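Subject: design request, 240 residues
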């Protein structure tokens, strides 16, 4: 089967179908590679940041750790929370006597930051879903179109020998295979990245709860953090 014959002998519709499928497949694989590398970087950056953040001596040091990390979504979440705490101003609500508090303000700030990170992590998912759902039908359209024109040629020739039918029909049917070849990686990648995004969202949600408690109370929030705080307190007491 010579695919070059499709571009040499096919009409503009069939050529357009194959070019569309080629574009879909190229974009899919580009997105798969880019997002896979990004997720790998984010996983490593999140682990390193969480360790460094809770090892910080105080909130100023923790803010410095967050500001120095440009990769981790958790670092940007911490930056938003700390900045929100520093720039908190209480504004009166519409109802008399109902004033905003720092707790509610931080919750809203952290939720907005999480929404931004979730939007960033989900970029490209619409493309994968679109390719996975439409590429088979684009390929099927190319097959139907190619078979129709092959049958028209056979009708005009008045002959239906195996040699005359096999070539045009085989080249038309390959459009369906091309559609599946573009759709299957897109569907698999969509499912894999969707799960990775859910895991990242759960990680951000857990960190946001710990961060909120830390910013509100200033107390330790994780066992490792509490142990570190106790160790530093003992060291200060011994030095005194």
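Subject: RE: design request

Done. Sequence follows.
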């Amino acid at each position: 089967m010579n695919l070059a014959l499709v571009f040499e002998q096919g009409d503009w519709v069939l050529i357009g179908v194959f070019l569309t499928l080629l574009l879909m497949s190229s974009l899919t694989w580009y997105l798969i590679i880019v997002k896979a590398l990004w997720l790998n970087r984010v996983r490593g950056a999140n682990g390193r940041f969480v360790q460094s953040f809770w090892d910080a001596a105080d909130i100023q040091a923790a803010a410095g750790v967050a500001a120095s990390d440009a990769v981790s979504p958790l670092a940007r979440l911490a930056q938003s929370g700390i900045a929100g705490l520093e720039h908190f101003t209480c504004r009166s609500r519409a109802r008399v006597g109902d004033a905003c508090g720092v707790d509610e303000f931080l919750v809203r700030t952290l939720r907005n930051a999480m929404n931004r990170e979730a939007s960033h992590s989900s970029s490209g998912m619409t493309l994968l879903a679109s390719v996975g759902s439409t590429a088979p039908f684009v390929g099927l359209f190319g097959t139907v179109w190619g078979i129709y024109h092959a049958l028209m040629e056979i009708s005009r020739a008045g002959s239906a020998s195996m040699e005359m039918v096999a070539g045009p029909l085989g080249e038309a049917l390959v459009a369906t295979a091309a559609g599946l070849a573009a759709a299957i990686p897109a569907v698999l990648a969509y499912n894999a990245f969707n799960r990775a995004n859910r895991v990242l969202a759960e990680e951000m949600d857990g960190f946001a709860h710990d961060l909120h408690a830390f910013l509100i109370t200033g107390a330790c929030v994780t066992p490792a953090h509490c142990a570190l705080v106790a160790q530093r307190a003992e060291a200060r007491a011994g030095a005194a």
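Residues 88 and 105 are 7 Å apart (CA to CA).
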